[in-house]
Amino acid sequence: MLFQSIKFAVFLPIVFILYWLLPHRFRYVLLLAANAVFYLSWDIRYGAFLLFATLVSYFAALALERCSRPATKKWLFVLSILVSLTPLLVFKYTKFFFDSAAAVLSVFSVRLHPFTAKLLLPVGISFYTFQSLGYLIDVAKQRIKAERHFGYYALFVTFFPQLLSGPIGRAESLLPQYKQERFFSYAQATEGLKQMVWGFFKKLVVADALAAYVDLVYGNLSKYQGFSLVLIVFFYSIQIYCDFSGYTDIAIGSAKLLGISLPENFRLPYFSTSIREFWSRWHISLSTWFRDYLYIPLGGSRVAKPRHYFNLLVTFLVSGLWHGASWTFLLWGGLHALAQILEKMLGIRSAREKGTITRLLRALPVFLFVSAAWVFFRAESFSDAIYVFSHLFSGITHPLAYLKAGFLGACGIGMGKAALLNLVLFALLPLIVTEFAAEKHIQSPIAYLSGRKPVVQWIVFLILVCLTVFLSKKGVAAEFVYLQF
Amino acid sequence: MKRFIRNAIVFVLIAALLTGLVNFVYLRRKGSPCGTMGTIKNDDAIIKDVPENITLCNFGSSHGYYGFDYSEMPGTCFNFALPAQTLSYDYLILKNYQSRISPGAVIVLPISHFSFFGKDETELNDFASKNNRYYSFLEKENIKQYDAKTNLLVSYLPALTVEDPIAIVRQILSGSKQENLWDDVTTKEDAEAHAEPRYRNFIESKKDKNGTRVFNQAEIDALYDILALCREQGFCPVLVTTPLLSEYNDTVREKDPAFYDDFYGILDKITVATGVCYYDYSNDERFTGTYDLFFNTDHLNRAGAQKFTAILYDEVLRELLP
Hints:
heterodimer; A: mainly alpha; B: alpha/beta; 11 helices; about 45% helix
């Protein structure tokens, strides 16, 4: 069930009303049933994978807690991690590893048959696997106690707002919220609704509008060059941000309606003044997951410099691979690691000034780097990414023709004047104005908008809803980019 | 909780009211749709008021939509063409309205350079929005990927399907006075500037990643289906390529000379297999250098359409019409 579907528009109010009508002791049962309806509506077979992840982590955590012998506990821990990871490794990475092995062996004239089996990849598997892995590690390291109530634990792994694409939650913060009786809060619920409206606007108006051009060009790359490619590089930066942060806003907003606070996942990342800062503002729940469960266990920054750089590289390569089983994702992760290593070597730190021109100027090169790195993330192959970079400036010797061609001309993306005006006036302008204002006031866009007078809030959110209703592509269920991960 | 639900309901009602209001005004101010005798052209084209006993009609894409003017023609004529319409939709429209066409009527089928090539239209990004227009005048069995939700939306909330708020605002402010391309006149400079983009759109974009032309067998088959249906119903089909300016023709010749072999190769096969006649006006010197007859490099304007329809009538249709 997609967030932007009619099904979800019916499903959420029903869950919301029943949830607050039921006594606390039955609410987890209602939510478990809601999770099942939400997830199994994709494909009933996916349920087996979710159940497997839940059961393995639940029983492994109990066993780990009971185990007193360190050696046995160590082996049990390694085994439970491997078993938890198996579905993800098999269904997401088998083809990648097989194809990579075949490519290496072909150098030695050994030929492997191409891997043609089509494996089912359950939606959200990377997210719920990592959430349950984090729980297992926390229990093994005795940071938290193993949850004995299977119902609450299953709710922690399968909570529908975050099940498909996060934010990846921590047991320490979420389990107590499920167990403790929640009382309806008007402020929290209205904030949740506002966040959902903002999320739908970002996804359905901005991201989907940009996706039409991005998909067109990346689907027929050889037909485009010059400023068209420059536009697409920036369009994709905005698209992926609005798509993923839009999803996150809807997820966090839905959870708030049920009185649950999910972790923050985005904090205006394109205003970051260093790559390090970018990763503290982009997909925060995943960045902190890698920080706590991979980077710090490897030694983090409290080691010799070469080892520190190695830790960074490993962390970001794994992060790249987490996003997708392909060399382009690996390269994308590697680029971000190298940029941070470079920042450390050159002593570049994040700007301390807030909301100043200096800060914005510092943010520009970071945005440019991040946008360039997204090319590897979006391109279907390494050669496609290279094509983009090598043709970005084709025709720039005639600047006016270069710019005109990018929008409308011979090698342009076929964007008519009306489409361009619509995109700028009704999608990009509201987004940019709100984000700039929020950054200036060091607040989230929702907190910033919620700080206005009630009349202003009503008008702003009514306009956002009307824009979303009129501008979204009706009848076209455009999936969220991160659902593929 | 009560306060939240009350405010949420009020919010939803206001949003729905605003949407309904915009839709209402949009519907009231909407201009006359095209089609009726092929004389009114606007960008919000649908087909309506299809007459009975049609003796001459045409189908096709924008080349058919803008290329024919039956205002001076004898008998009952009708223009079934719509911008970016495929041969497969020509077939579905013919199937839908066959009972309104008289036996022996002449069916003009404009063939454009993109008619036989490229991906299936259902795989294209703009398919859903383009497909919406057919809900208002075709039976559901003749609509591709029909679904009841879209039908409701198109029938009762058409403003929501426009996806272009500027167009909605323009419509509301200007009523039926729409920007009418059909009365525009192009210039040599404009024709030169537009030739390359049109070539890319019509020919280059119909190739795959490796630069190989993609033959769209479904569209070729649709033409065979149209011809078979015409035979079955006793209609007289004629294939036509409408006039084009020399700037466009020269660009195609320069950029992709092999295109003509592929394009005419398919037409040769069809004419041989079915016996249908094909008339190619794409290089007709009465049009190729006359900018006053076009509003861009490949579309006839009103004067051009009148001239072309008259020429086609004199040279081809007069003898065929019942």
